[in-house]
Amino acid sequence: MANTQKSKKTTSNRFRVIEWVYMNLPFICFLSLLTIIYIANAHQAEKKVRKIHSLKKEVKELEWQYTNVKSDIMYGSMPSQVVEKVEKIDLKVSDEMPKKIKTKEK
Asked: Cα separation of 43 and 35, whole Å?
């Protein structure tokens, strides 16, 4: 007899739980939706953080390249370097001072 009373209690408890779930189903669905939105938001934030990190790395590399090219241009535009480059195509630096050409003004 004790078994039948226990089984009736558990059966009635199950029905109460099921009834409670059905009564709170909209709230449970709402919480599930919020959870999904929260997880999606966290993934998007992580994705953006990774992208920002990679872009910062790329900017740093481009700054190094800029500095390197700038120093090469500065070094290559020095008069001694220009003379070396010009001598390769059989041009020579003039020893004379440049002459100024005067025109008559009207």
From this structure: 12
- How many domains are there within the chain? 1
Residue 39: Cβ-neighbour burial (10 angstroms; 0-12, 13-18, 19+): exposed
Residue 99 lies in a domain: no
Q: Are 81 and 75 in contact (CB under 8 A)?
A: yes
Q: What average pLDDT does the segment 9-22 reach?
A: 82
| Owning domain of residue 40 | 2-87
The DSSP annotation for 63-80 comes to HHHHHHHHHHHHHHTSHH
Q: Answer with the residue of higher pLDDT: 82 or 46.
A: 46
Residue 102 lies in a domain: no
Q: How far apart are CA 69 and CA 82, in angstroms?
A: 17
pTM equals 0.54
